[in-house]
C-alpha cells in the first residue's frame, strides 16, 4: 500500500485522511442512530473461560454490532468510537441489559463483562447496576467486572473508591490486558482486584522468546503472591495450553478452547466441558 502511493504521497495521504474522517463520522452517526432506535443491532457473544483443568468457569461477554448499513463492525472500532462520542454509557446499558437477561434465564451462568472507565466513573453506575440485578434476584457474585489500566491512569483515587464499592457489592473485579500499556505494578497492591488477565499479545510471543517466557512466569508468581487468580488470554493451540499449565496459570481463554458464541451454544459447551473434566 505505502509503496504504491510513492511519489504522490502528500496528495494521496491528504485524501486518505479526509476519507478516514468522513468514514468515522458516517459510522458515528450510524452508531448513534442504532443506540437510540435500533438496539436489536447489538448482541452479546460469550467466550468460555476454563480452569486449567478444563472445567467451565465463566464466559466473557463481548459486545457485537451488526449495522444495517455497515455490517459487522469490529468491537475495537465501535467501542473506541462510542467512547469518543460520549455514547459508551448508552452502549454499556444495552450490553449489561442483555447480560442481565441471560443471567436471569440460566442460573448456572457466570460471566465477566468489560466496563470502560467512563462507565465505571459515572456517578450512579454501580448503584443502578446493583438495583437492576436485585430486581431480578441476580447475585452480583455471578459477575466479574473487567477493567483496563486506562481507568486507573485517569483518576487513581476515584478508581480505587469505585473498585472498593464494586467489591463491597459482591462483584469480582479483574484487571484486563495486563502486559500491555503501562502495566503499573504499583497499583496492584492498592487496588482490590481478585483476578489478573494477561493480554493475549503477551501470551502469543511466549512461544518464540525465552525472555517473554521468564517474564510470564514471573508475572504469574507475582499475581499469586498478591492472591490474584491469573487468566491467560489468547490460547490458540495445545502447545500454548501445555506451556501455561507448566507456568501455573489458573484460567485460560482463547480460540483453541472456544470462540465467542451465542448464549445458546454456550450452554451446550458448558455441559461437554464439565463432562470432559469429570472423565
Ligand atoms: P478483551 O476484553 O481483551 O477481549 C478479548 C478479545 O480477544 C476479544 O476480542 C476476543 O474475541 C479476542 N480473543 C479471544 N481469544 C482469542 C485468541 O485465541 N486469539 C485471538 N487472536 N483473539 C482472541 P473482541 O471481541 O474483538 O473484543 C475486543 C475488545 O473490545 C475487548 O478486548 C474489550 O476490550 C472490548 N470490548 C468488547 N466488548 C465490550 C463491552 O461490552 N464493553 C466494553 N467497554 N468493551 C468491550
Ligand atoms: Mg476483557
Ligand atoms: Mg483482554
Ligand atoms: Mg483487549
From TrEMBL:
Domain (EAL) ranges: 24-274
Residue range from the parent sequence: 433 to 711 of 711
The name this protein goes by in its record: Bifunctional diguanylate cyclase/phosphodiesterase
Domain of life: Bacteria
